[in-house]
Design brief:
The chain is α/β, with parallel strands linked by helices and 443 residues long. Among the domains are: 217 residues, 3-Layer(aba) Sandwich (Aspartate Aminotransferase, domain 2); 92 residues, Aspartate Aminotransferase, domain 1, CATH 3.90.1150.10. Helix content is 41%, strand content 12%. Strands 2-8-7-6-5-3-4 form a 7-stranded mixed sheet, sandwiched between helices. The relative contact order is 0.15. It binds pyridoxal-5'-phosphate.
């Protein structure tokens, strides 16, 4: 359903717009809209011409002085606090102002005019939005559904496949709970077997990782479910090679791509997996509550839906959209996700991936220089992108963790720490972490 600007501006009930006590955020949005001239009031986001409401610095600056360019992006495009070092976008990323505005504006419109003239249900088939996302990910619209997160997409596959007791699912020993729990539930409920394959964290090359997975395939293996980039160590798996061999053997593949979309180029048809689950709220600037489910060709037709509403069995023209007919949803989040995609595209996805890895290599070089640290993530730059994990040799980190908190440095871990970096991470944030660790453990 499309809302015209005139509905928003002229025909919407004036009572709401003249009410005293309109929220601060609404005023802020409107001021933001007025100053960000390129942002049209939300009509159909998919139709809007502007990829990004706020002007970006010139790309000449990016090549002349990358730190200055990216620090300006952080300061101008994000709402991130100046005095905090956010070194864990791998768990949940930060959204740019353009995404925040888009979400706020969608909700504001719904509040102002809560009828079907404003897109508000979130379980429309969202074809233009899915088309735009599918183009970016190298698949067809009908192969792609929006979910709330990666865990949900994985659960749809694990619960929805026809498997019988004794059928085996292979996974690595580095899966995230969101990647393995639904398979374990299925094992407990219906007797499928789940087997973990130990993969080396520092393999001699990517081929060794593929080899481990392929050698582990047994006569009962029906599915291989694995992370394209692992959560604990940021290890990049040769997903394409694993999928190719699995396919030749008639084995179904599911890639947990939570760390792939937004960290490396993803071409789903080229990857050759049967299913892919994504988490654009990590690396693609999407608001929390954004997920992706892909099924190759008619692979989604082979899944039983887990959450049902009318349309659950409509496989003609609804292959992927069946998985979005799940009851009332938050349309503002979908619009925010598309705004995040546009933000990424406007920066240039390749430039984003390159900057992320540059920052991760900065982390790596700090780790190498310190006797009290041991790298866990592979040294081979082909095997990591934007996340780097290392271990502290000193046993007691209690006061260090307290110091991280009081210095407003936010990281993930315990004895092992995983630092991750997106374009809004500053080199100075990384340096601040290691300066603090030197103060505690001596360089
Ligand atoms: C590899 C992996 N899979 C799945 C998830 C869960 O993602 P979501 O919160 O989008 O469900 C995570 C979260 O960190 C992850 O790292």
């Amino acid at each position: 359903m499309k809302v015209t600007p005139s509905l928003h501006r002229a025909s919407a009930p004036s009572k709401a717009s003249t009410q005293a006590g309109r929220s601060w955020s609404r005023r802020t949005i409107l001021q933001g809209l007025a100053s960000a001239a390129a942002l049209s009031p939300f009509t159909s986001l998919a139709d809007s011409a502007s990829p990004n409401p706020l002007q970006l610095p010139s790309t000449a600056l990016r090549s002349q002085n990358p730190d200055s360019y990216w620090n300006r992006i952080r300061a101008e495009q994000f709402q991130l606090a100046e005095d905090r070092a956010f070194l864990n976008p791998g768990s949940l990323g930060a959204i740019p102002k353009s995404v925040l505005l888009q979400v706020q504006e969608t909700l504001a419109l719904q509040a102002e005019w809560p009828t079907d003239e404003v897109p508000r249900w979130g379980y429309e088939s969202l074809e233009p939005e899915r088309t735009e996302m599918a183009e970016f990910l190298g698949c067809h619209r009908d192969e792609l559904a929006f979910t709330h997160n990666c865990t949900e997409a994985i659960s749809y596959v694990a619960s929805g496949l026809d498997l019988k007791a004794g059928d085996e699912v292979l996974m690595t020993n580095q899966e995230h709970p969101g990647g393995y729990s639904s398979w374990r539930m299925r094992a407990a409920r219906s007797g499928i077997l789940v087997r973990e394959v130990e993969i080396p964290v520092s393999p001699k090359d990517p081929g060794e990782l593929a080899q481990r997975m392929i050698e582990a395939i047994g006569p009962k293996t029906r599915v291989i479910s694995f992370s394209g980039i692992t959560s604990p160590t940021g290890l990049v798996l040769p997903a394409r090679d694993i999928c190719r061999v699995a396919r030749d053997k008639g084995i179904i593949t599911l890639i947990d791509g939570a760390h792939m979309d937004g960290q490396i180029p993803v071409d789903l048809h080229d990857l050759g997996c049967d299913y892919f689950a994504g988490s654009p709220h990590k690396w693609m600037f999407a608001p929390a509550g954004s997920g992706l489910l892909y099924g190759r060709g008619d692979a989604l037709d082979q899944l039983w839906p887990t959450v049902c509403n009318s349309g659950w069995d409509n496989k003609t023209g609804m292959h992927a959209a069946r998985f979005m007919m799940i009851g009332t949803n938050n349309r503002a989040i979908v619009n925010g996700m598309i705004a995040g995609l546009r933000f990424l595209k406007s920066l240039g996805a390749d430039a984003v991936y390159a900057r992320q890895q540059e920052l991760a290599r900065h982390i790596q070089s700090h780790v190498r220089e310190r006797r009290y640290l041991e790298a866990v993530t592979s040294d081979d730059p082909r095997l990591f992108r934007a996340m780097f994990t290392f271990k502290f040799i000193p046993a007691d980190l209690t006061t260090f963790w307290e110091a991280l908190k009081s210095n407003k440095i936010y990281v993930l871990g315990g004895q092992r720490i995983r630092l991750s970096a997106n374009i809004y991470t500053r080199n100075s944030d990384i340096d601040a972490f290691f300066r603090l660790s030197d103060r505690h453990f001596g360089k």
